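DM from R.C. (forwarded with permission)

"hey, sorry to bug you on a friday — could you get me a structure for this? deadline for the figure draft is monday and I only need the backbone to look sensible"
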Amino acid sequence: MLKGGFGKSIFANTLGGVLGDVRGHDVLVADLDPAGHLSTGLGYYTREDEDALDLGDVLLEDASPEDIIKQPGYGFDFIPSVNLETVTEDLSRDSVMASDMRLKQDLVDPLLGDEYEYILFDIPGSRNKLVNNAVVAAPNAILPLKPVPEALNGMRETATKLVGEIRQHIDFEILAVVPNDLRARIDQQTKDRRLLEAMNTQEQFAAYLLAGRDGVDPDTGTLPEGVDVAEVLDNHIPPFARVTADEWAAIDADEMDPPKIPIRHSAAFGDAYEERKPVTAYDPECTQIQHFEALAEIIEQGESAMTGFDLGESATDDETEPDETDAIADADGTSEQDDSRQDEKKADDKTEEEETDPRVEPAFPFSDDLRESWYVRDEIVTEFEDAVDFEAKPLLREHGVRNETGREIQDAAIQVAKNNPEELAKVILQDRGIDIEDDEA
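My reply, with the result:
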């Protein structure tokens, strides 16, 4: 996922423990994130150590994978995050096509099947050579989402900037999208409900899941004619998190008790991290482990005996994004001459986008105040975009409108504020901590 903080490291070590310790498989877990949260949570502290053997020695030198594999003793073997910044830089200097195949050729192919049944990667979201390697070597993903404002925006970024691009060149599968760290009721308008209802009912979300497939447009949130939204969601959301549109209606009509959808918030995960253990070892009785067993079954039934965790910090800067498409294309065999033409076309496309995309400018460019960087907070923008995608656009779709523009949306937002000046004032007062009810009394 092109967003961090959704619990990817916990998912990686918990699934490693479930697949290995609980279900008896031979499992290797590898931390490919330079931040090394997974490594820290297992007692291996991330550091730069020129004397230590690292992944680069396996991928670019003559070291054996066994030279860097550790045995933490929790049902799986482990490759910690060591010198990964340097490894990424070294891979970038290698020939492009070869560098994207290194992880598959030098680590996965020699180990998968003979030594291990499953190899799990914990991957950062910022696209680099290690991420490209992981996608080629393990083209299956499980994506956790937390009920926070940026969750759906992160899913949108992942679909449009990662999954859609990858599927133009390799067969990449999202095995499951999983809600994580839930704690609120869903019979009220909570963040938990907002996330779960979007995941379980919206065509927009289904389009994210199928980004890159023929006829799917994740930007407008539309699927090809004849594709059933409910079926797409059934195939990507685990049964324990699936709530159909009819069930939501029954919950709202008090005809059905609201279920407590997993994966729930549990102090055991944080305590296990502090003890430098996976929760399967720290608290085997933790009630949430059963849901990771359900995810393990999904992995076991998957088309490939690998799953890549593409979960980390967002990559949105100009230095990172150009490499995303190039690396995947090169891995598919594009020639150097083709690369040159693609670079030129990409530069032209970027210039055109900057000229035509209204998001390049502030949402409301008529006001000098709104141009101040401190004014529009990131979380407000994210919540606005999510409200447009998952509340406004579905209403437009019901009336046959599928080609709305960014400018139309901006103009409509201004018109709403113009027609509701009291609400506008209330929002500003509340944002400043002024209690409106006390003033009225």
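R.C.: lifesaver. Residues 175 and 298 are 7 Å apart (CA to CA).
me: no worries. Strands lie at 27-31, 77-79, 118-123, 140-145, 173-179, 306-310.
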